[in-house]
């Protein structure tokens, strides 16, 4: 089974997708980490993440980044990721890897921006996870603060809005809810309540198939 989980910045996709994978015995792939790795490599190289030629080179060299590097989770890296993600040849370079993870047994939960629309358009279960910008910014702010990062709520909110606009407005695989995706608004839900709602959707889709 393949479960596609898409949504905007800090909607809680990662935590939710990881827990769903555990419950249903599936693999988990954080596709944002791939774009973050390309963005981080460009930052380390002192290059502009919007430079197409340099970004394509970095996508080819992405194995150089240690996927446990804490710098992957920085806001600066998230912003660089969203710039490289607008470049179609970068997306093409990362597509096959994502599809291979999805189709390997026993199946996988993938989270990102274009899983239900581009990477796995035939996924039997698609979730579009969202929440208000203010609630998402508060959650991301607390996450970064807990990691000891020196950042304000206002800066997180403004970064988040900028990144959402870029992700939704780009012409290549923009963030959008697939026609057959279930909307899960977590503005008023904590992680346990969101997980329960997600499992109900998944179980109902399994029963119907
Ligand atoms: O965790 P957060 O919501 O901050 O972002 P992420 O999932 O780590 O993704 C970082 C950036 O990668 C996003 O802002 C997107 O621009 C890009 N991305 C994408 O274009 N397609 C995906 N499937 C996953 C991420």
What is the H/E string?
EHEHHHHEHEHHEH
Going by helix content, strand content and strand pairing, the class is: alpha/beta
* Helix percent band: 55-70%
Can you tell me the CATH topology? Rossmann fold
CATH classification class: Alpha Beta
CATH architecture: 3-Layer(aba) Sandwich
How many structural domains in the coordinates? Answer: 1
Strand order of the largest sheet: 2-3-1-4-5
Low-confidence stretches: none
Average pLDDT confidence is: 95
Rounded to an integer, what's the Rg over CA atoms?
Answer: 16 Å
Shape: globular
CATH homologous superfamily name?
Answer: P-loop containing nucleotide triphosphate hydrolases
In whole angstroms, the N-to-C terminal distance is: 11 Å
Number of contiguous helices: 9
Give a quick account of the main beta sheet: strands, pairing sense, barrel closure: 5 strands, parallel
Strand content is 5-15%
| Bound ligands | cytidine-5'-diphosphate
Number of strands: 5
Short description:
With 209 residues, the protein is an alpha/beta fold. It has 9 helices and 5 strands; from the N terminus they run βαβααααβαβααβα.
């Amino acid at each position: 089974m393949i479960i596609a989980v898409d949504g905007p910045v800090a909607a809680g996709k990662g935590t939710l997708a990881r827990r769903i994978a555990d419950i249903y015995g599936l693999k988990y792939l954080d596709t944002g980490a791939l774009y973050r790795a390309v963005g981080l490599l460009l930052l380390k190289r002192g290059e502009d993440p919007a430079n197409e030629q340099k970004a394509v080179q970095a996508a080819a060299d992405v194995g150089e980044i240690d996927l446990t590097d804490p710098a992957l989770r920085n806001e600066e890296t998230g912003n660089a990721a969203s710039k490289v993600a607008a470049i179609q040849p970068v997306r093409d370079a990362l597509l096959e890897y994502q599809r291979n993870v999805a189709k390997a047994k026993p199946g996988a939960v993938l989270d990102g921006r274009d899983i239900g629309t581009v990477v796995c358009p035939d996924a039997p279960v698609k979730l579009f996870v969202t929440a208000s910008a203010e609630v998402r910014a508060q959650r991301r702010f607390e996450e970064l603060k807990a990691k000891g990062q020196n950042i304000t709520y206002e800066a997180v909110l403004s970064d988040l809005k900028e990144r959402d606009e870029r992700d939704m407005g780009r012409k290549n695989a923009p963030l959008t809810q697939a026609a057959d995706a279930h909307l899960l608004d977590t503005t008023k839900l904590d992680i346990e309540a969101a997980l329960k709602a997600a499992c109900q959707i998944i179980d109902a889709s399994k029963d119907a198939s």
